Amino acid sequence: MVEGALHPEALAGVAREGGAAWINHAAERAGGTLAEGQAATRIALDLSQRFTTLVFGEAGEAAATRLGARDLLLDLETPLAGPFGRAITRIALPAWMVGRVAPGEAPVRLDDHRFQLGERRYVYDQWGLRQKG
């Protein structure tokens, strides 16, 4: 029943019966859907390529950030104690959390659950990763 009511031919019939306002609304929805699809195609990441070769254009910047492509992957020389019993040797620091960091700057372990990178301190425990101070 739902599939039949939402079929494009059924929706076109509803728009015709509703008159100009419904036809205009249907055209706006179709145009919006098409525009969203084209925008997604422009910013899609080709994940079959090496990450280091991907190019993020102006339109792709927001998508790259949202998808985590700008996150900083940190290798921890001295592991943190994981909240569930496993040592944490690598952690992804979201781009929005990073702040100013000099190129090549390494994280400094402060204790079992805390580390510092640049001027910012972070904690990773049973509540996840968060910035502290």
Helix content: 25-40%
Count of the domains: 2
Mean pLDDT value:
83
- Indicate the proportion of strand residues: 15-25%
Span between N and C termini? 56 Å
Task: Using the alpha-carbon principal axes, give the shape.
Answer: elongated
Number of strands: 6
Q: Please state the oligomeric state of the protein chains shown.
A: single chain
**Major beta sheet, strand line-up:** 3-4-5-6
Give the topology string: H per helix, E per strand.
Answer: HHHHEEHEEEE
Query: Unreliable stretches, pLDDT < 50, 5 or more residues?
Result: none
Count of helical stretches: 5
Query: What's the main sheet like?
Result: 4 strands, antiparallel
Q: Rg from C-alpha positions?
A: 24 Å
Q: Structural class of the helices, strands and pairings?
A: alpha+beta
Give a written overview of the molecule.
With 133 residues, this protein is α+β, with helices and mostly antiparallel strands. The protein has two domains: 8-52, no CATH class; 72-132, no CATH class. 38% of the residues lie in helices and 25% in strands. The chain has five helices and six strands; from the N terminus they run ααααββαββββ. The protein has helices at residues 2-6, 8-18, 20-43, 60-66, 95-98; strands at 72-81, 87-93, 108-109, 114-117, 120-125, 128-131. It has a four-stranded antiparallel beta sheet, with no helix packed on it. β3 (108-109) and β4 (114-117) form a beta hairpin. It is elongated and about 70 Å long. The protein starts with a helix and ends with a strand. The mean pLDDT is 83.
